[in-house]
Inverse folding.
């Protein structure tokens, strides 16, 4: 069993993390401005950031009476955790089934296929 922490982020949480990974440190207003999609109220973004801080996803400091936020976890850790969780929950840990599903349900360019083949060769050489 892995001691790695599991991150389950909702869509808005993931959007906020992406903003912070890009532009941090950032105020609530700066995060609000950079979010894609439907405009959200300042209070909605501030509330979500507080909840995310409670979960140790972000942290803040105070500058000139403003809360300035930054990510407390890396994009690589979140990506790995969420991808591992997806494979475990939807495909019962079967990576081949996950990859097969993606190949059957998504358009894959010849360049992407070549990259996948290269990754498989590299992994095979490590084994």
């Amino acid at each position: 069993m892995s001691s790695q922490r599991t991150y389950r982020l909702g869509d808005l949480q993931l959007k906020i993390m992406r903003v912070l990974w890009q532009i941090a440190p950032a105020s609530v207003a700066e995060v609000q401005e950079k979010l894609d999609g439907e405009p959200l109220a300042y209070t909605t973004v501030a509330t979500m950031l507080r909840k995310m801080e409670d979960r140790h996803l972000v942290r803040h400091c105070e500058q000139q009476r403003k809360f300035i936020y930054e990510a407390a976890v890396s994009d690589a850790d979140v990506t790995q955790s969420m991808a591992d969780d997806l494979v475990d929950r939807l495909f019962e840990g079967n990576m081949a089934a996950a990859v097969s599903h993606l190949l059957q349900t998504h358009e894959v360019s010849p360049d992407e296929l070549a990259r996948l083949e290269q990754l498989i060769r590299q992994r095979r050489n490590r084994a």
Q: What stands out?
A: The helical segments are 11-23, 28-34, 42-54, 75-91, 95-105, 110-126. The mean pLDDT is 93. The longest strand covers residues 58-63.
